[in-house]
Amino acid sequence: MNHQQCAELATICRSIRWDVDMAPYSTFRTGGVAEAMVEVGDIAELSALLRWLQKEQTQWHVIGGGSNILVTGRYHEGVFIRLRGSIQDILLEPPDAYAAEEGVLVRVHAGCSLAAFLGWCVRNDLGGLEFMAGIPGSVGGAIRMNAGALGHAISELLESVHCMTSQGETLAVAKDAALFAYRSTRLPGEHAGKMLITAGVFRLQRADGKHVAARCREIVEQRKQKQPQGLGSAGSFFKNPEGDFAGRLIERAGLKGLSHGKAMVSPKHANFIVNTGGAVPEDIIALMEEVRRKVLQHSGVLLEPEVRIY
Fold it and tell me: What residues are labeled active site?
């Protein structure tokens, strides 16, 4: 961006930083440098931002909680957007939703963390989302990736998705109008331009908050036992191929513990690539490609990354 564009962007966004090291914004704990990062919590501000980016033909990305991304180690021109959200942005919809026998409708801002949303559910005696316990990231990121675990996906609980087009226009997409697939969500109209998820409306069930909390603790403990702890990672790196598990294929190829630079295939869970300390993005990418090549040679399956690489 030139000086004039930088000045104009600063008048639109209240929270903006320049030449940002992306490592702190990725759970991989590594990344390149972004020309600009803005944090937005207001819909009007977000609309103005997207309209300006469209007018100036400036590239932009939404990074959510940073739990499923890898930002390559170059200088990234354009704008990275983080949506701000908290439990104050969780609303019953409509206000008398608790009276609905078929469930409780809850609208959640895309920037709210999954952990905060689950905590709110516990305090408000609402269940259904327990399988997401222990998954990091934001609600918007979880919707975009159709995140899930234990045989369930977040789309099962969605009623609608609130979005904003690259022209800054808001719209609500009914669940049936969206295309949900394994670790993927496609919204109508995205072929014509990028679309940013601003909120999700979920249908939850009334439940005893103590029981919900106990189930969440149980699932989190299971994750701790099966997954590497204390190292930078993006969770499951590869999508599970149909009818199989990526971790099983990687382990059968004898790749547990395989490393490239400071990146390593976790000895604890083969579908985790971890930053053992000081890994650069290119270490992770090189290791990813080696794993894909060796699994293809061993099993005839080409693994697809679940992590989004920028």
Answer: 183, 236, 306
